[in-house]
Amino acid sequence: MGESGALTEDAKPGLLLVDDDPLIRDSMGFLLRPLFEVHLAETRREAGEVLHDIQPQPAIALVDLGLPPKPHDPSEGFALISDLLASNPSIKVLVLSGQSEPANLRHAMALGAADFISKPCDPDLLKSRLQHQLVLLEAEQDATVEKETALAGESAAMESLRAQIQQFANAPFPVLIEGESGTGKELIAKQLHLECNRAHEAYIAVNCAAFSSELLESQLFGHAKGSFTGASRDHTGFFQEAGTGTLFLDEIGEMPLQLQSKLLRVIENGEYYRVGETKPRFSQVRLVAASNRKLTSEVRDGKFRQDLYYRLSILTIQAPPLRERGEDRLHLLEHFQQVYAGSVPPFSLDEVASESWLGYDFPGNVRELRNIVIRLGTKFPGQVIDPERLEDEFEKLPWSDSQAMPEIDVEAVLKAGDFDLDAHIQHIEWEYIQAALNLCDGNLSKASKLLKVNRTTLYSKIQRLEQCREDD
Asked: What is the model's pTM?
């Protein structure tokens, strides 16, 4: 599940094109169909629905940032990038947008976008950039990069992680993997399977965020013929397909509450029911789950069952973020240069740039680091990278935790005249709200918690500030 189809000479690679402008969808679709199997979507939600019906999954997604319901705001596009990579970590997401401000470009890249192309774009340049991503994708498949990168590094955090995997591999209990996006939670789950006594059995990975509630239940437990509209035959669920192997449930925090109770029953006594059946079935699968959310917070907010959390978290692994892995950041730079040696020219960092590399937090973790390596090699083949070139690739958020708010000579500003206190406050509010939304992938509830304001209050502020900006 969740993997792009193999790139072969017999079949065109799939491409998902998401843009709310019908003229762009039609023209881009016509331009790209000779090279790709093109699938079209207008909104983030429609993109998710289209992906449910595509097998194999598309190799590339070409997405706009400005999507409904706020086409003049990049938040929906940012959220879509996260959705796509959560559903399929190997997909190459390219942004094609007129909202090409440096801050938007950096944030899209930090989220894991492979490239950013400004509108309007020369057709030949666009096709060239897409073909370049296909070459990189083939290099990754040939090098089995995901398996080799899972535990790459010599930091204390990675040594501890490897030790935990060895400890937990053969335990009969569920394992919960928690960590930020891009830290390799699925790779850790796969390593748990490879090191356990079930390694010869099936391993199935399912992203809970990629399915609607009804479809997820059917995918997990199966359904009987005629149990709902469109159920034209019996369907075997993942619990049955996994047998006595490993079933990995990624983004478990996205599982609806009513389905959580059914998962709890499987964990407690192995019992489950196909949709539309009354006869129980039994599973002996080894369950591994992962979440980039703190499930304790989800339990406190009533979004995740406390009893299920306790059953899942008997054994817990924390996937370390890249900022806690010290010089692993340099090891990974060398690793990815080796992986892409046939596709991306080598480069090197000067001494000061190496220090900057080690000092950067990499909010997008390993995925972001990999994309920066690819971009630097493509843009500066064979060159020595200085700090200025390097930091152009790093995301910069206004007044982040690591930066103090710039000092302002207030008296001098007032003496200069033309100072508007309301406009100044509105500007500050807007900057912080946009930064919070970017950090939270456009999720209003998460942003309100980050800003320590009520969700309704935040929504009202956004509406008021957007109206003020339109009036200006």
From this structure: 0.63
